[in-house]
Amino acid sequence: MDPHPRPDPPALRDLDLPALTHRTADLLRDHVPLTLLMDLVETGGPRSEVRYADEGGNADWLRP
Per-residue confidence of the chain (64 residues) as pLDDT tens digits? Predict the structure, then answer.
């Protein structure tokens, strides 16, 4: 049993898709890796070890 169960994702009808699209575009424009965004929405947890194997990049998008 998972000691930290994840909440059910919101229903599509409950999402503000234009706002979500705008925010996602802003993050990508700021060079946040798409694979990180994909990891954050995985309901079963991130699969970074598979996705990041071939992805180059840096952490310049992190702000102090």
Answer: 666 666 666 676 777 889 989 999 999 999 998 888 887 877 776 666 665 566 666 667 666 6
Crossing angle (nearest 10°) for helices 34-41 and 17-29: 140
Residues 61, 32 contacting (CB under 8 angstroms): yes
pTM beyond cutoff 0.70: no
**What does DSSP assign to residue 31?**
T
Domain limits, the chain: 16-54
Phi, psi of 60 (to 5 degrees): -60, -25
DSSP 8-state class, residue 61: T
CA 33 to mean position of chain CA atoms: 9
Q: Supply 27's token pair.
A: 């993050």
